[in-house]
Amino acid sequence: MQPSIEKFLKFLKLEIERGYDNRAVVGGLEKVLPNWESQARLEQIPETSLEKIHSLISKYELQPDDRKDIINSIWEELSKISTGNPPPPIPAARNIKPLEKEKPTNNETEQRFTSSARTSRSQSRNTSSGDRTGLKAPLKVVQGIGDKHSETLAGLGLHTLEDLLYYFPRRYDDYSQLKPINRLFYGEEITVIGAIHTVNARPIRGGSSHLIEAVITDGTGSLRLTWFNQLWIANRLKPGMQIVVSGRVDQYLGRLIINNPEWEQLEEEQLHTNRIVPVYPLTASITQKWLRRLQYQTVNYWSSQIIDYLPDSVRSSYQLPPLGNALKEIHFPPNQQAIIDARKRLAFDEIFLLQIGVLQQKRNWKSVTAEIFSVEDNDLAVWKNNLPYQLTNAQQKVLSEIRTDLLSGQPMNRLLQGDVGSGKTVVAALGMAIVINNGAQAALMAPTSILAEQHYRSLARLLTASGNGKPILQPDEIRLLIGDTKNAEKEEIRSGLENGSIKLIIGTHALLEDPLVFQNLQMVVIDEQHRFGVEQRAILRAKGNNPHLLVMTATPIPRSLALTVYGDLDLSLMDEYPAGRQKIDTVVLYPKEREQAYRKIESQVDAGRQAFIIYPLVEQGDNDEGKAAVEECDRLQKEVFHKYKLGLLHGRLKPEEKEKVMSAFRNKDLDILVSTSVVEVGVDIPNATIMMVEGANRFGLAQLHQFRGRVGRGEHQSYCILIPETENAVDNERLKAMVETNDGFVLAEKDLEQRGPGDFLGTRQAGFSDLRLASLSDVRLIEKAREAAQMVFDQDPDLNLPEHQNLVQMLQRFWQPGRGDIS
Question: What's this model's pTM, rounded to 2 decimal places?
């Protein structure tokens, strides 16, 4: 019999004699494996047998009721591979008195879980490797998690074992480098092993608190450790005890010290020291140690049970590690490279699943039919000639794409993205004109009353103009419906839409109201689409029969984001300005240079122009030192611009109050408009030539670009002044991008890198904000995942093949109800 087998059998025999209590080896049977496997390989024990034994041992701690069967299976496997004298028969177990439980300490939560937290035994025993049912078990099945802890974990979004598995660390502390005490330096984060020399607790602050001090030695020197108000540590640490300590080396009275270090007994499983330690997001009453131990128990068992849903062809083509390995090593990595590899695999998964879902959505949309609408070239030429200016090449191209969509017999599903002032509304108007000219109805929904009213005025002007031919619409065929529309007028509008006498309706969320019924709604235009939720768009579409859909945004969307998130939409890009649009001069001024900005505003107003001043807050809060519009408007009127007329606009005003202010500004009754970010989108004041943004560091570049787009809409040179709250170098370096370029797409890419996708996604769908590891600025990863998803989708669009059934389960998990929708 090989020495390694003989050695292992001795451990198993002792474990059987102890009644399968997992105490034959300090720390559990699993501690035997590393050294034993090395010896077994030297003796050429087959790898298949080693893997089988390893798998069985990894379940031993977590499945107490199955321990006898597990040991029997290991014994049988060792018997098969033994050479020479065969192993003896399996001995009988004897009844022994269970070990006494440790008495609870002051750190009750930590101690309780250290000995009791286990993954659900009943679920895991009854769950096959490929079935995810066990992972759906609530966290209360874990011994040691009661109602209180379950409720606390729910606050972190953790409800099931699967949630835990996918609750990734926010960072890592690398304590993997052991050092002797005599080689420690101030400021470094290290791990040392030593023996307790002394330990004591002494009262401080008049006895209201306690300081626990311990000194450890390792033969090269001594090191002082301190903890504040943790008396239980003084009870646990005993002179002579060997412990592993990790933390940051500090200095006190010339001596090295570690304050509040992580520590463990040397023979324990080292989860908190002597390794790369995961650090998780926490909430009140949850400690890192407690959650880390819970994660270890969950990950250690379930990562080996999960079957990889990715087809082998995809995994091998893109050199991705198995899913189980990635999940294990994202939580408890053996080295830094393991973190990189695990993140790569799990980020790939997120984009891949996103893309499969988006491709399915696009196919579903294209599978239905829609009414065909055409327009004669001569009619279209007349409409164009009636416009106040000539269309740009970009506008002509997008109009051609819309015409093609309307002729296709499938519902248009197009995203039109164009920078501020590129002329999206005109193109949308011509698209709706084609539908209206064929006897159907169209609707345009905007996020605010101000923007809806502006669209109403511009569309009425464009579509009711007679010019060289018959106007597309009569004045009473286009109407505005917003929240403060009078009830009598609302009834009139509802009646007109139902009987078909109203051809075009422009409005806000009021268009979603139940009593609103269309006779024949065939085209829906959504402006600033990221301001609307999935359900809102679906409600409006449902008021027609597969209507054509055009969604517009003035927020330039980076290419990587458009490819990923809007892959179900056909994309149109307008990156050309109409003739007459000028570059806006932009400058960043420090707070102490604010007077320069005021003088510039005065010079513009004196020349007959108007100005915007934007603030990040409506009113000054108790805990926020940022400037606020209400207080600053009053101060500016009294102290700075006393000879000019100022108006105030913010989101807390009633709709009629907002309209009153905007009308006054539009009619030049106000010289300066003090506002919050409500002017970000769509406000069109051709006479406004200067925009000043206070607290500019609080806004993203894309939003600042939207502010800047409110000026420069007339014939005069315009200016934008950005004033950050401090002279912080990082903030001001970011703002310099606004000075360097007027290209919204360049700024959008920078914003994505610096601030993430939130500003662009809005309320598109919750699933996209659930990307935990994938960076939407990682174009290479996105393109690879898209390529892989397209390959699988082309091969099996319905995912009916046997090798794709695990993928179907993962898709259902990723695309939960409400997580996605077209547009």
Answer: 0.60
